[in-house]
Every structure is written in structure tokens, then in C-alpha cells.
Amino acid sequence: MHADRATSPELSTPPPSRFAVPVDAALRAAGWQPGRWDIKQAEIWADTLRDHTSPAGHRHAVFPAAVEAWAEFGGLHISPTGPGRQIAPAALHLDPLHGLHLARTLGDLGRALDTEISPLGTETDTDALLTIDTEGRVYALDHTGDWYLGPDIDQALTALISGIQPARLTAG
Fold first, then answer.
1. Contact criterion met (CB below 8 Å) for 65 and 136
2. What is the chain's Cα-based Rg?
């Protein structure tokens, strides 16, 4: 018996997401989809950050890893549902302008980590600032300390949306 290709399950199944189901669902509910790429908005953010100088003369670093993250995820308001694995999942607004007036803070962190840091967005419930470095590693800065969220935007979003406890950055 010959299987009809049009109804074959392996052809009608969507490709697997690069995110786990709950993370994928939260991202899609926020408006993300595979292939999302708003480079025009990312360039507007890049220009705004580049053009901003703090009163003390501090400037923002803008680099490809940041622009790529903004192009794919920028502008999203992510509201995870359900319990977190270890901590409460984070509600997020991925807009780098949340860090516009923190050029010195980001420069200081970048020097401490021997890299450059650019703003990514904020955890809306805690006001923690999300940042990204030149290698694509993601961090959060809040009143309790500086946190490592993951080696790339995908793992950082998974940790934040899933409620996985981040690692604290320590001097040493």
C-alpha cells in the first residue's frame, strides 16, 4: 500500500522549535516567530544608543550580537505563565532603551568582564536590566547584584521564562 505524501505525518508536522514548548509558547504569545527580524527597529535603537552621551561623557557600546538580538526579539513584552522551576518566571520587555541612561554602569561591567556590554531590556517586575556582551552572553543587573543568564540569547530567555535560578557574578 502506498502512503499519500500529502497526508504523511512527517511532512505535515511543523519543524521543532529551538525552544522548549513553554518557552516557545510564551515567545509566540508575545509576537515572536521563527524568522522574525526587524532590522530597521534594531538600527533605530543602535543609532539612539550610539548618539547618547551621559553628562559625564560615557557612551554605549553597540555591536553585532546586540543588534541581532534586538532584531529578533526587540519590542517583545513576554509574560510567562505557570510556575518557574526554581524561581518565579520573569516578565520581560525587550527594549534596549531601558538602559539608555546606564552607559557608565554597562561600561564598568564590561571592563570587569573584559568585554563590551549593551542593554537588551528589562525584567518588568523587578526592573533588573538585561544586557548582552560582544560574544552574545546575557546578564542581568539589579539591586541585589549582577547575574549571568546564559551563553546566548536563547539560553538566557529559556532561563528567564522557565524560572531557572541564574548564577551570580562574583569578583575573583
1. yes
2. 18
Distance CA 137, CA 76 (A): 19
Which stretches of 6-123 are assigned E, i.e. beta strand?
Answer: 77-78, 92-93, 117-123
Cα distance between residue 159 and residue 156, in whole Å: 5
Q: Which residues of 85-121 are buried (b: 16+ CB within 10 A; e: fewer)?
A: eeeebbbbbbbbbbbeebbebbbebbeebeebbbbbb
C-alpha cell at 87: 524561581
CB distance 100 to 55 below 8 Å: no
Q: Mind listing the pLDDT tens digit for each residue in 77-106?
A: 999 988 999 999 999 999 999 999 999 999
pLDDT at 2: 45
What 3-state class would DSSP assign to 79?
A: coil
